[in-house]
Structures are given as C-alpha cells and as structure tokens.
C-alpha cells in the first residue's frame, strides 16, 4: 500500500526554515494524522507524500507558494489592544486571537502601545521556504465517515 487519495497517514516531522533552524517538530508528541487528497496539509508536503509507504523517511523542501503563501504587507495593522484575546499582558512576538469580519484570526504582536498594538496577521511561516524531514509511521484506508468529513479521525486527527 502506498499513499494515495483517501489514505489516512500518520507521520512524524521536523520542520526547518531556509537557515536550517528547527521551527516545529512532532517528535515527543503523537504523530500527526491527515487524510490524503483533501487539502489537510500544505500542498507541497501533500504532493511529496504521494507513493510513500509506512517506514519511509524523506526530506521535502517547499516554496512559499506551495506552503503558506507570500507575505502580505497590508496584513500589518494597528488595532485597539482590547481586541486581542489569549493573554492579559502583551509583548512583542506573542500570538493573539482576534475576531474579524472574516472570523477568528491569529496575529503576531509586533509593537505594544498603551491602547493600541501593531499586529501582523500573516501566517508566521508566510514567505518562508520550508524543509520537512518526514517519517511515515502508519497508514490505512480512510473510513467512509472520514472521507465524508474530509479529515482523519483518531490518534493525531480529529477527536469528535
Ligand atoms: Zn470528522
């Protein structure tokens, strides 16, 4: 069995930026699970998964346009500090939740004033070339329910 549409895949990964700095890793946690072919993970990584089997290890370098997109400088905005959710005191670099007309968004705090804060609504990995070191742990055919929901259930997936 190899990874193809409607396969549930569990994998461990280490994510590095272009300088080789580790910015995220799944090791020490449960493996990440996703339903292949449903856009659950970034396109560049999903493409690299095709045809892999349990036990396979590989490295995939993904350009921003196949990951989190390019940075949008208009996403840097000054907003009232009281709109930030998730902490009482804010400092540069912290991640906050903000309710917007388009629903909840995550923003990174850039600068804190008395009443106003400058925030960046770009995804933290936007504009970055990302390198994933991946180990495929397990795979199985998706259930009808998972295909209907468009995501994986169970360990590392949706619990509901
Ligand atoms: Zn579900």
Please supply descriptive tags for the structure shown above.
160 residues, mainly beta, Chitinase A, domain 3, Thrombin, subunit H, five-stranded antiparallel beta sheet, four-stranded antiparallel beta sheet, elongated
What does this structure look like?
The chain has helices at residues 43-49, 144-149; strands at 7-16, 22-25, 32-35, 57-62, 76-80, 95-100, 103-112, 116-120, 130-141. The protein is mainly beta and 160 residues long. It folds into two domains: 7-68 and 126-149, Chitinase A, domain 3, CATH 3.10.50.40; 73-120, Thrombin, subunit H. Strands 1, 2, 3, 4 and 9 form a five-stranded antiparallel sheet that branches. The longest helix has 7 residues, at 43-49. Bound molecules: zinc ion.
């Amino acid at each position: 069995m190899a990874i193809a549409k409607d396969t549930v895949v569990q994998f461990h990964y280490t994510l590095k930026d272009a300088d080789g700095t580790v910015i995220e890793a799944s090791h020490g946690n449960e493996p990440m699970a996703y339903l292949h072919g449903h856009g659950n993970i970034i396109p560049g990584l999903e493409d690299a998964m095709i045809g892999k089997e349990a036990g396979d290890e590989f490295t995939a370098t993904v350009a921003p346009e196949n990951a989190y997109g390019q940075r949008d400088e208009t996403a840097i905005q000054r907003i009232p500090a009281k709109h930030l959710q998730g902490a009482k005191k804010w400092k540069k670099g912290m991640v906050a939740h903000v309710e917007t007309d388009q629903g909840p968004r995550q923003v990174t705090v850039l600068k804190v004033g008395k009443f106003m804060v400058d925030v960046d609504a770009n995804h933290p990995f936007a504009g970055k070339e990302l390198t994933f070191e991946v180990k495929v742990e397990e795979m199985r055919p998706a259930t009808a329910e998972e295909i209907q929901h468009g995501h994986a259930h169970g360990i590392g997936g949706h619990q509901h």
